[in-house]
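Following up on my earlier thread - several people asked me to post the actual chain instead of describing it. Fair enough. Here it is, all 300 residues.
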Amino acid sequence: MKRDSALVAYSSSDESETERVIRPAKKRKLPVLSSTLVGPAHVDDPSLHQGRIRTIPHVDGQYATHIYASVTLERGSPLFKLLCQIVASAKSMAPTLHDFWSSPKDTPQPELHISLSRPIYLRSHQREDMKRAVKRLAEKTSPFTASFAQISELVNEERTRVFLALEIGAGHHELTTLTNILSPALRAIRQQEYYAAPRFHASIAWALLSGRAPIEQGSDNTTPEPQAPISSGSISSDSRNSSVPLVPEFATITEFPPALLPALNEQYGPSMTVTAKSFDIGEISIKIGKEVSRWRLNGT
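Reply from S.P.:
Thanks for posting it. Predicted structure:
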């Protein structure tokens, strides 16, 4: 029997599929935050800080930090009286100097700060780790006696201020040991260690600067030579030739008068090294933002 071959017809897929139109999803608008939830933008006003200028812009969640040995001064002590005499003599030759404790109302208990770190900047999650590192350092360090050796001029790395400083003589070795112990903790958070050849000091007065030569990388805050001859100790409020922004109403100087340091060291140098003017270092402090934490030296 002869079979008929049957042909089966299949419909085209184009005919069987229905056309789909994909429309983009509607974006939802986020609600507008209330003005009470948005903090005001941070604005630096040098006029509120004697003309001092923030050299590192403010960043939310980043905290300026300073580690130092703190020395409390009694206003009636021989050392405090000596420091006041030095500052008064310096102001007679450099009138734009500002001291740190002239007003008992603002600083009822004056202190000397001997830096153990450069200015560093911590993120929020790093603060407690650094405080623990400083606390451990205090627990393993014994108190020691220090004294000053000479009066010096030091300039900050940004060249915005010049400081009248007293450099450490006795106690330099112990302070070097402290900075060496701190170095691993600073390296762990990618911060610069203290200077390789440190000049430990306590600043007792400062002035705003203009027209200074750049400081070389790796400097230990020593005073650089001026780029060009300038009038020594001249006061200027003209910011046109300055490498940093200045506040016109605050006077600046280009440098201390050349005769200032020799005169101060000749008059007060012998007095700084006598036993009555020595002092004990028995406390380490760390300032993170506006918060200050202190620990007594308790090592044996």
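The helical segments are 13-16, 78-93, 127-139, 172-188, 260-272. That should answer part of your original question.
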